[in-house]
Amino acid sequence: MTQFFPYDNLTWPEVADLPRDVPLVLPLGSLPDPERVAAQLGDPQRLGILPSIPYGWRGSGLAVPESLLAAYIANLLDSLRDDGFTRVYALTPQGIDLGLGESALRLPIPNSQFTIPPDSERGKVIIIPIGHTEQHGFHLPLSVDTIIIEAIANGTAAKVPEQAYTLPVMPYGVSTHRPSFAATLNAGGRAFEDFWLGVIDVLATRGFDRFYFMSGHGGNMSFLVNIVKYAGERHRRIFCATAFLHTAGRIGAAALEKYRTSPIGGMGHACELETSFMLHLRPDLCHMERVVDETDFVSTPDYYMDWIEGGSLIANPPWDDDTKTGAYGAGSHATAEKGRLWLEAAIAEKVGHVAEIHEQHRRREERRNAGWGLWGKGR
């Protein structure tokens, strides 16, 4: 009988130790029958299931052009091949061909019974949470960024349901440091931008006009900035925004300063902050006996590592210049109580951003409708 295991519950050393002929499957939507998947692959002894893509294909409730989805998925599968895995597959609904060749498995996957988001949610800020599946040192699983940003997005929508609606979290983003440590995936910067701009195109065409990309992963950020710029040029009556990560604005920064015990350099990746979130949200996935603090970042006055990065220099040197384990920061300083307090601050910060997006859109529409400036000349 096949043993199924969730890929994203593993740490990167555990993925590094997997035999390279273990099959790995990335589902589109829910996995309807794991045993049927195993049967298609010859009933292997072990089979790894990756986090599912929540939407994007015909029948998912929110479909983008298939070429955009195909590029996104192909890059993710190539990440696994780059790590040496020889049996990697995407499980796609029958009748959909994404050009994946022998890497495509097909089973009947129920179509969504709902349009995502429902048309009744027009006029709200549509939260688009994006996490990632990547290494987080010796002590945390690959799912850290996804778990944290999903909790923040859901918490925000629950606080102000009359103002915001959240899409399901996307568990894949961009990691340009992917070759440094095993297990990290990469959707690719250009494919990432094209896919998410395609999502905005679809939603704007359906009459949605306020969007907030929430990212749990720093590698997504520069690409999200490009997306909101492109979206604002393409759809002139929307307001599409993002922010640098979470727990990093006015409210978040104050909370970090109040409760942190590590010095600058102690918060970056698999650090005091992310480990605290995980101890609060998913302590069962934390291996605190394996924590290694790494704060020996090659720092100069205008280039250093901490959660709220500072300095005027922007660069992307190899991660393995600065970390031997994949971690940046002091995970040993983490506690579940800090995670609870920081989650409250992160949600409060995002609730404030939702309110600002509404205000920005309202005030700009008032100007436009009043014929302000060039809007009064028929633009």
The average pLDDT score comes to 95
* End-to-end separation: 65 Å
Q: What is the H/E string?
A: EHEHEHEEEHEHEHEHEHEH
Compute the gyration radius: what is it? 21 Å
Quaternary structure state of the chains depicted? single chain
Structural category: alpha/beta
Report the β-strand fraction as a percent range.
Answer: 5-15%
Classify the helix fraction into a percent range: 25-40%
Number of strands: 11
**Low-confidence spans:** none
Number of helices: 9
Strand arrangement within the widest β-sheet reads: 1-3-2-4-5
Form type? globular
Largest sheet: 5 strands, parallel
Question: How is the topology of this model organized?
Answer:
Blueprint: E1 3-6, H1 12-16, E2 24-27, H2 34-40, E3 46-49, H3 66-82, E4 88-93, E5 104-107, E6 125-130, H4 144-159, E7 164-166, H5 189-205, E8 210-215, H6 221-234, E9 239-242, H7 250-259, E10 267-269, H8 272-281, E11 328-329, H9 336-369
Parallel strand pairs: 1-3, 2-3, 2-4, 4-5, 6-7, 6-8, 8-9
Antiparallel strand pairs: 10-11
Helix pairs in contact: 3-5, 4-8, 4-9, 5-6, 7-9, 8-9
Could you characterize what this model shows?
With 379 residues, this protein is of the alpha/beta class. It contains nine helices and eleven strands. The chain has a five-stranded parallel beta sheet, sandwiched between helices. It has a four-stranded parallel beta sheet with strand order 7-6-8-9, sandwiched between helices. A two-stranded antiparallel ribbon has the order 10-11. α6 links the parallel β8 and β9. The protein is globular, with a radius of gyration of 21 Å. The mean pLDDT is 95.
